[in-house]
Design brief:
Elements (H helix, E strand, L loop, with lengths): L1 H10 L35 H18 L2 H6 L1 E9 H4 L11 H13 L2 E13 L2 E12 L9 E15 L2 E11 L4
Parallel strand pairs: 1-5
Antiparallel strand pairs: 2-3, 3-4, 4-5
C-alpha cells in the first residue's frame, strides 16, 4: 500500500529538467535524455480504491507540509470545515482560506497530532463518492519512540467527484465524536 501511495504522490508531481554540469562534450556515445520524470504507477482501475487513495494522499500531503499537492487534490469549489483546526484556534486566529486552513492543520501535525484511520464507509451518488472515515487522534509530541496518547476520535466526511486529472475533493468536514 505504501508503494501505491508513493506512486500516487509522484503521479501528482511535476518534475522538470534542471541545469546541470556541462554535457556538451561529445564522447561519441549515444546518451539518452533524462528529463527527471519518473514513470507514474498505474492508477487503480477500481474507482473505490482511487477515492480512498486520494484521501490518503491528501492527509499525508498536509501532514508533511506539501500544501501545494493538497491544494491540487481539491476541487476549485471545495469547502473545508475542520474542527481539528477550528477548536485549536481562537476567534482572531481562524483560517480564512483553504490554504490557511491546511497550514493551520500542518502546524497541528508538526506539534504532534497524528491521524490513524479506524474504519471507513464509501457511498455513491451517481458518479460522486462520499467517504466517511473514523479517525483516531493521537498525540505524538513525545516522539516516535514513546507510545502516543489518544486524544479522541473524529469523523471525517469527504465528498469527491471525478475530474480529468482524477478524483478531487469537493467537500471535507472533520468533527470530534463526543465520547469517541
Amino acid at each position: 500500500m505504501g508503494f501505491l501511495l508513493a506512486g500516487c504522490i509522484l503521479a501528482g508531481c511535476t518534475l522538470e529538467r534542471r541545469a546541470g554540469p556541462d554535457t556538451s562534450l561529445d564522447t561519441g556515445a549515444e546518451v539518452e535524455e533524462d528529463f527527471g520524470v519518473l514513470d507514474p504507477q498505474p492508477v487503480p482501475a477500481d474507482p473505490a480504491e482511487s477515492v480512498r487513495i486520494t484521501l490518503e494522499v491528501f492527509r499525508e500531503a498536509v501532514r508533511v507540509g506539501d500544501i501545494s499537492l493538497a491544494l491540487q487534490l481539491l476541487d476549485a469549489e471545495a469547502v473545508l470545515l475542520d474542527d481539528l483546526v477550528l477548536d485549536a484556534a481562537d476567534e482572531s486566529d481562524l483560517p480564512g482560506t483553504r490554504g490557511e486552513l491546511l497550514l493551520a492543520l500542518r502546524r497541528r501535525h508538526a506539534a504532534g497530532l497524528g491521524l490513524e484511520p479506524l474504519d471507513a464507509e464509501l457511498r455513491w451518488s451517481d458518479n460522486t463518492a462520499v467517504l466517511s472515515t473514523r479517525l483516531l487522534l493521537l498525540d505524538r509530541s513525545a516522539g516516535l519512540e514513546a507510545e502516543p496518547d489518544t486524544l479522541g476520535v473524529a469523523r471525517e466526511t469527504a465528498v469527491l467527484r471525478p475530474s480529468p486529472e482524477g478524483w478531487r475533493i469537493l467537500h471535507l468536514h472533520r468533527s470530534m465524536i463526543p465520547g469517541g
